[in-house]
Queue: 2 jobs
Job 1
Amino acid sequence: MKRENSELITITDHQEAEKADYYVCLRAADDPHEFPDNMTGFCAQCGVPIIYRPHAPITPKKICTTCAGPKMAADPDWRIFVTPTVAQEVADVLARERRRKAN
Ligand SMILES: [Zn+2]
């Protein structure tokens, strides 16, 4: 079944984000160093060092992108939720990139 992208990524509030099954984190080795206040931890599944934002939800298991791939492939109903804080941070990074490329 083909779904629209708008159904796959939903902006949610911080309270709802606490109900998620997993919080997908970048592996520390892939850290683009955009955020000096990133927190560090370990993937709940494979134990690799991960980074996450200080405002990340506390309840969901933090897993790395490599472990998230197969879970998403196995679950036909997977959805991505982002908080408004994360959406704004990503928008800011993309805007900075765009300005950097324009100069
Ligand atoms: Zn992992």
Job 2
Amino acid sequence: MAERIKSPEDFKEAAKANGISKVDSHNCSICGYTVGYQFSPNYEEVKFDHGCDCTGRYIKSPRTWQYVADDYNRQSSEKVIAEMNKFWGFE
Ligand SMILES: [Zn+2]
């Protein structure tokens, strides 16, 4: 069983190890566009792609790996956590 609470570094390392360049967060409720995190090729930068302009802000906002970790750490559903573990390659 993997550690439940993960650090930003855990995600950065997992993204590097598994070649993960983006993480889908949710779909826009209006147009269905997949909104989520995107990582720079060297994994030093994290951005959040709002993707569409339904909310009036078609921008990529700077984020950090801490946001990615927080999104994971605040999950309470075992099912969601299991899916995320699979995605990130956490055992
Ligand atoms: Zn939209």
